Structures are given as C-alpha cells and as structure tokens.
Amino acid sequence: MARNRIREEEEAAIDMTPMLDIVFIMLIFFIVTTSFIKEAGIEVSKPNAANQIKFKNANIFIAVRDSGEVWMDKKRVDVERIKVNLEKLLTEQPTDVIFIQADKGAKHSVVVKVMDAIKEAGVDRISIAAAKG
C-alpha cells in the first residue's frame, strides 16, 4: 500500500523546466527584436504642413529650438559635435533616415548646419518633422 502511494505522488509532479526554457527563449527574442528610439529629449513647436509622410523606422531624432540649442538623445549638443554623436548612435542602431524637429522660430542657419552634419555622418535621407495643418 505504501508503494502505491509513492508512485502516485511521483506521477503527479509536473516538470517545469521545459516551460521555463520556452519563456526564457521568448524573452530573448523580444529583447533582440525590439528597436529603441533615440529621441531628442525636448518638445518643440513644429510648423504646420499640409502633406505629411510617416516613416515606420523613426529611430533618431534631432531637435532644434528657437534659441539655437540642438538636442539629441536627450542631451544638449553643440552643432560641431553632432557628427561625432550621430556616428556613435548609428553604430548602436543603424538607420537610413534622420528626423529633425525644428521649432517654428528656429534659425535657418542652425537647421542647415544640422543637416550638413547629418550628411557628413553618412546619412543621405533627412526628414523635417511638422505638425498636421
């Protein structure tokens, strides 16, 4: 009678190892396939535009304030340092398009300098963010 009891208890146990393996593999899959967005870190008042195109692979944003400040990856950056910072971001997360979020009152010369730095970093596609208007 005691032997039957021991066998019943052994048969009722569920091995959790395969389920934990599957959960761990799924976790690794989601971590690897997740894309991280490098936002500028500030809000700007974008100009209105009638036509807009939304890009699915929006990864790196550079913001230009009306005061001439340039922000990227949630840090203020000098215009001369944009190329170096952008090259570092591109090695971490390659992309074919960079987004500029320029304020309505941003100086044209600063935006052009930012665009030149992006071109020097090796990215040919630049998109200017705008609000629906």
UniProtKB/TrEMBL annotation:
Main location: membrane
Coiled coil: none
Keyword Nucleus included in the entry's annotation: no
Membrane-spanning residues: 12-37
GO MF annotation, one: transmembrane transporter activity
Compartments, record wording: Cell membrane
Membrane-protein topology: Single-pass membrane protein; Single-pass type II membrane protein
GO CC aspect terms: plasma membrane
Keyword line: Cell membrane, Membrane, Protein transport, Transmembrane, Transmembrane helix, Transport
Pfam families: ExbD
Gene Ontology biological-process annotations: protein transport
Cross-referenced PANTHER family: BIOPOLYMER TRANSPORT PROTEIN EXBD2, EXBD MEMBRANE COMPONENT OF PMF-DRIVEN MACROMOLECULE IMPORT SYSTEM
Family in the record: Belongs to the ExbD/TolR family.
Descriptive protein name: Outer membrane transport energization protein ExbD
Organism: Thalassotalea agarivorans (Thalassomonas agarivorans)
